[in-house]
Design a protein that fits this description.
Elements: E1 12-13, E2 24-28, E3 35-42, E4 51-53, E5 57-64, E6 66-70, E7 74-77, E8 82-85, E9 91-95, E10 101-108, E11 113-115
Antiparallel strand pairs: 1-2, 2-3, 3-10, 4-11, 5-8, 5-10, 6-7, 6-9
Amino acid sequence: MKVIKISEVKKEPVSSPLFTGPEVTRQELSDSREFTMAVVNFGKGVRNKFHTHDSEQILIVTSGHGFIVTEQEKKEIAPGDVVIIPAGEKHWHGATEGSEFSHIFVYRSGSQATQLEK
């Protein structure tokens, strides 16, 4: 068994064309062979761009307010919300304009994301 205290995990800056702004950090949580898990912290108004995953993705909101958006709907999400995104579903998630936003993501190790928005 392993217990991880998120407050003790270093925040590493993320530089990726997947995000709409530079105010993004990541905290790695897992060395599991089966799952990839991390906390992603978004600055106010920052989001990722439309993308898909080849496995299911689970988001667990830990702080702030954000959105989860598909081609069909847009929902505001807040701490305690859990989002299950089916494999292949086009989506984005990120902070509202007035709030920073953090979530834990979980997906199958080795799965791939495909960015669909420039």
